[in-house]
Amino acid sequence: MSELEAQLQQIRNEAIALIAQADDLDALEQLRVKYMGKKGPIPQVLSGMGKLDPADRPKLGALANQVKDAIQTQIDASKTSLQAAAIQTRLDAETLDVTMPGSYRPQGRRHPLHSTIDNVLDIFVGLGYLVAEGPEMETDYYNFEALNFQADHPARDMQDTLFLTDGTLLRTHTSTVQVRYMENNDPPIRIVVPGRVYRRDTVDATHSAVFHQVEILAVDEGLTFNDLKGTIKVFLQELLGDDIEVRFRPSFFPFTEPSAEVDVMWKGRWLEILGCGMVDPNVLKSVGYDPEIYTGFAAGFGVERLAMVMHQIDDIRRLYTSDLRFLKQF
Ligand code: DAH
């Protein structure tokens, strides 16, 4: 046997022994590259073939192929058993013990302010109203002027309104969206508008500088105060129960005429819930509606106040402090 043949057989023996001992797929892959790659020992041995008698060369070539086949066979066998072992290890690790107690996952819930808004929107959507929204940063025009506030109206006072440095302001009510919506839509209109509003109030148990309102607006031919009363009554009955007692009191808002405030009998006393009225003809004119043809009614209320009444919450600040002991009650 030539020296080169002996070298090939030694390579085979060494490779097969090492491959059989490889204990994971990475190690096996490294051995495959080492012995079977183009820079491996077999091509190196074959490069010495030039020294051989030409008659012996085919024999050496045939032996090299046998050695390669033998190594490859060992690689395949090791690979199959290492893969099976890897799957078995994984199966053992992932076994599920169905007798173990389950793990506790705390469940979240809607914040009482959001669930109140959702309830209100559901009721009005059920009556055929569309949900509309508008910006919180507003101009004097949408917050006051188009809503028929006189130039000297006290609500424009620096003490109530938060003005921004560029001359805009943070809306003090969601009535702004009445004008914005009517500017872009023709009657008949029925919208319900939830949103955040801002006032320069000192924070205490019943006041917050940021709070939420819901506004409704209906404009059509032939709407009367009776339609307003019926709508408000149905709404409050849906929200607070069929036998809720409701009372309308005359009031004043620049953008409605006549205007009213609505109280409900709650735990033995009258509680003011919302403001409402027939849309003032000046407001209809400001958006180009003809008040000789169309009439409308509107209403608006504070969501925090309503949530406080419904859930007997004693301090508005509880709605903002994210205290789980409080929130978990809803
Ligand atoms: N915008 C009023 C406020 O913030 C509430 C209000 C009163 C809205 C009467 C209305 C309404 O739409 O008709 O106090």
What distinguishing features does this structure have?
binds 3,4-dihydroxyphenylalanine, BirA Bifunctional Protein, domain 2, two-stranded antiparallel sheet, 7-stranded mixed beta sheet, elongated, alpha+beta, 330 residues, single chain
What would your notes on this structure say?
With 330 residues, this protein is an alpha+beta fold. The chain is built from eleven helices and nine strands. It has two domains: 2-94, no CATH class; 112-327, BirA Bifunctional Protein, domain 2 (2-Layer Sandwich), CATH 3.30.930. A seven-stranded mixed sheet has the order 1-4-5-9-8-7-6, with helices on both faces. The termini are far apart. The mean pLDDT is 92.
Give the class-level CATH name of the largest domain.
Alpha Beta
Shape: elongated
Proportion of residues in helical segments = 40-55%
Distance between the termini: 91 Å
Rg from alpha-carbon coordinates:
41 Å
Query: In terms of structural class, how would the helical and strand content be classed?
Result: alpha+beta
State the CATH topology of the largest domain: BirA Bifunctional Protein, domain 2
What is the β-strand count?
Answer: 9
SSE series: HHHHHEEHEHEEHEEEHEHH
Which oligomeric state applies?
Answer: single chain
Domain unit count: 2
In the CATH hierarchy, the architecture of the largest domain is 2-Layer Sandwich
Bound molecules: 3,4-dihydroxyphenylalanine
Strand content: 15-25%
CATH superfamily of the largest domain: Bira Bifunctional Protein, Domain 2
Instruction: Let me know the largest β-sheet.
Output: 7 strands, mixed
